[in-house]
Amino acid sequence: xxxxxxxxxxxxxxxxxxxxxxxxxxxxxxxxxxxxxxxxxxxxxxxxxxxxxxxxxxxxxxxxxxxxxxxxxxxxxxxxxxxxxxxxxxxxxxxxxxxxxxxxxxxxxxxxxxxxxxxxxxxxxxxxxxxxxxxxxxxxxxxxxxxxxxxxxxxxxxxxxxxxxxxxxxxxxxxxxxxxxxxxxxxxxxxxxxxxxxxx
Length: 200
What we know:
- By secondary structure, this protein is an alpha+beta fold.
- It has one domain.
- 32% of the residues lie in helices and 20% in strands.
- The chain contains 6 helices and 10 strands.
- A 4-stranded antiparallel beta sheet has the order 2-1-3-9.
- The chain is globular.
- It starts with 16 loop residues before the first strand and ends in a 6-residue tail after the last helix.
C-alpha cells in the first residue's frame, strides 16, 4: 500500500527544535536539538530523579508543580526565539501528540504498539510521559500540504476514529511545550540510529 501522507524528501536527522531548561516559566531556549539527541537525553539519567518525584507525588496538582519546576522541555514543532507561536523561527516538520491517563502498563504497551504499527504516520520518537500513565508520540508532517494546526486536528481525528485514541487537544499550538522525562525504553526511529555511532 502506497503511503499517500509520507513526504518522500523527509530527512529525520535534519529536523531541529528548541530545548529549554526548567522551570516551565523560562521561555527562552538554551539551544537547538535533534531527534536522536532528544532520545539520548530521555534514556540518560538527567531527568530520572525529577521523573520519579513526579510519579511519587500524592496529588495531580503536586505532580504538575514538580514537572513545572524540575523538568526540561522542548518545542518539537520547531526552533523558537521564545516559547510562543509568534516566536517561531523555523518549523521542524514534527508534531507531538500526547495521550494521557491510559491506565496500566498493558494499556501503555498496547497504545505504543498501535502507534508504531500505523501504516500512514511513521514514529520518530515514542516515550512514556512524566506521569507514567501516558504516551508522547512524535511523527513528521508535510507542512507544504497544510499548516500545523490542520495536521494536528487531522491526525487526532484519524487516531480517534481508527484506534479510539484521544490526543490532548492543547497540542494544537506549534509552540506547545513537551517535558523530557526519563524513559530507558524510549523508541527512536532506527534510521536516526543507523546514521550515527552514538545510540541512546
